[in-house]
Write a structure and sequence with these properties.
By secondary structure, the protein is mainly alpha-helical. 91% of the residues lie in helices and 3% in strands. Strand 1 and strand 2 form a beta hairpin.
Length: 123
């Protein structure tokens, strides 16, 4: 029973809105004042659409600027990170070379100390 009431309310609402919309269209199309009003509404709609297109264009332009700035910043950060990585790699290689030189010196010292006989190398 409840479904029937809801359906009848929906039907009545649709019927009422359809009649109201039909009356508005009839007034706009059938009378001179209605035609003038329809023309004004059309002009206003075109103005609003033009304004909207202009604003969309502005937003697109600003978005492009933001994209370019972000891209530039990303490139700067990427270069900075790359430079820092190269500096750290250079530092690590320098330490490795220093350690290798110290190891070679220590090896020579040990050879002289333990692998000599009468001041002459064993071989």
């Amino acid at each position: 029973m409840n479904d029937k009431n809801e359906n009848s309310h929906g039907f009545l609402l649709g019927f009422f809105l359809g009649g109201l919309l039909g009356a508005i269209i009839l007034v706009l199309m059938a009378t001179k004042d209605g035609q003038k009003l329809a023309e004004k509404l059309k002009e206003r709609g075109e103005e609003l659409f033009g304004d909207l297109e202009e604003k969309v264009g502005d937003i697109e332009e600003k978005a492009l600027e933001v994209k370019e700035k972000a891209s530039t910043k990303v490139e700067e950060v990427k270069e900075q990170i790359s430079n820092q990585s190269l500096e750290k790699l250079d530092s690590a290689l320098a330490k490795l070379e220093e350690t290798a030189a110290k190891t070679q010196e220590a090896t020579e010292t040990l050879r002289k100390k333990f692998f000599t006989k009468g001041g002459k190398p064993l071989s």
